[in-house]
Amino acid sequence: ASNVLIVLVFTQYLSVMKKWHEREATWHVLFWMSYFVLRIAVVQMYSGSFLFRLGMELIEFPLKAFTVYVFIYVLVKRMLLQKKYLLFFGSALLLTFIVMWLNRLEDYFIIYPLTHTPNARYNAGYWSFYSAFFNLVYVYPVLGMGTTVYFISSWFEAQLAREKLAREKAEIELKSLKDQIHPHFLFNTLNNIYSLALLQSDKTAEMMLRLSKLLSFMVYDGNATAVPLSRELQALQDYVELEKLRLGERLEISFQATGTIPQVNIAPLLLFPLLENCFKHGSHRTSEKIWVRFQLQAFANGLD
User: Fold this and answer.
1) CA 75 to CA 210: how far, in whole Å?
2) At what angle do helices 203-219 and 229-247 cross, to 10 degrees?
3) Which DSSP string do the residues of 15-45 spell out, in sequence order?
4) Do residues 88 and 79 lie in contact, with contact meaning Cβ atoms separated by under 8 Å?
5) Are 233 and 264 in contact (CB under 8 A)?
6) How confident is the model over 19-44, as pLDDT tens digits?
7) How far is CA 294 from the centre of its chain?
8) pLDDT tens, 100-127?
9) Which whole number is the average pLDDT over 211-216?
């Protein structure tokens, strides 16, 4: 029961995140809100009232946002993901150097005076490399959080893309199946089988079996990369027998296949359009005879 509950919760979570992900700004708002709550209410880097702590975080926000967005949208997206590794690492070092001294400037002239905290790093002077480097511990955690959120967002985006591709593929396969079976042929065949059943004809079971085998071949074997030529020919023969039932004495057909049939594999449903078009476009005149000649010669390297 617990496993089922976990699956249901995770499914619901994916559904909610899918709706949220449709608006990219939602990720940014949620991320910074979570960060502010963590820093102000949980970590509490600054002493004092809530408004004072909020004000200090807002002062630091521009530099942290600059670091996060430059790293993700420039270094990661345009360099790392494009496999420009040397450029990425060089730019990361440059960004670190720039942020280090901008952060030192912010701390030395704004944060330390406002907090009134005697600090060895403050007394060391602005150009203290140690102090500037040490203060990065207050900047890079948010960078790590932002990068993590970005990759999670990208994962959801990839999931949505795969789902969309799977739906489109299913729709294409369904359309292909509908195109392979002419609706009039299918409806007429079912009606003819129904008539045979009413007459209690011995052909009813045979026709139902042929229709079942034909549909099974189209639905299941049609997804394979290749099928034996003999299997394709058997499906074609089932199709011809059903057309004979539909057209009756109007149809005169010659169906011949010779050569190295057991040794040949072909793409499924490759020959169907050739034969189906003969019936589809040749049987629209109800009063005339229909002649169809199908002749196939199989070779080791092809068909004729």
Assistant:
1) 62
2) 130
3) HHHHHHHTSHHHHHHHHHHHHHHIIIIII--
4) yes
5) no
6) 555 566 777 777 788 887 777 766 66
7) 42
8) 888 888 887 787 777 766 565 556 677 7
9) 82
Taking phi over 0 as left and psi of -120 to 50 as alpha, with beta for the rest, 279 belongs to: alpha
Contact partners, residue 19, CB within 8 Å, separation at least 6:
none
The C-alpha atoms of residue 7 and residue 299 are separated, in whole angstroms, by: 54
Average predicted confidence (pLDDT) for the chain: 77
Number of Cβ atoms within 10 Å of the Cβ of 28: 16
Which residues partner with 251 through β-bridges?
Answer: 290
Please state which of the ranges 31-35, 44-48, 257-261 shows the lowest mean pLDDT: 44-48
Name residue, tokens 């999670």. Answer: 152
- Residues in Cβ contact with 167 at an 8 Å cutoff, skipping those fewer than 6 apart: none
- Output the pTM of the full model: 0.44
Q: Which two tokens stand for residue 131?
A: 């102090």
When mean pLDDT is compared over 102-111, 182-191, 214-223, 275-284, the highest value belongs to 102-111
Q: Are 242 and 207 in contact (CB under 8 A)?
A: yes
Measure the CA–CA gap between 23 and 61, rounded to whole angstroms.
Answer: 22
| Nearest one of 48, 50, 60 to 115, comparing CA atoms | 48
- Between CA 171 and CA 164 the distance in angstroms is 11
pLDDT on residue 1: 47
In DSSP notation, the chain reads: -HHHHHHHHHHHHHHHHHHHHTSHHHHHHHHHHHHHHIIIIII--S-S-HHHHHHHHHHHHHHHHHHHHHIIIIIIIIIITTT-HHHHHHHHHHHHHHHHHHHHHHIIIIIHHHHT---HHHHT-TT-HHHHHHGGGGTHHHHHHHHHHHHHHHHHHHHHHHHHHHHHHHHHHHHHHHHHS-HHHHHHHHHHHHHHHHTT-THHHHHHHHHHHHHHHHHTGGGSS-EEHHHHHHHHHHHHHHHHHHHGGGEEEEEEEEESGGG-EE-TTSSHHHHHHHHHHHSS-TTS-EEEEEEEEEETTEE-
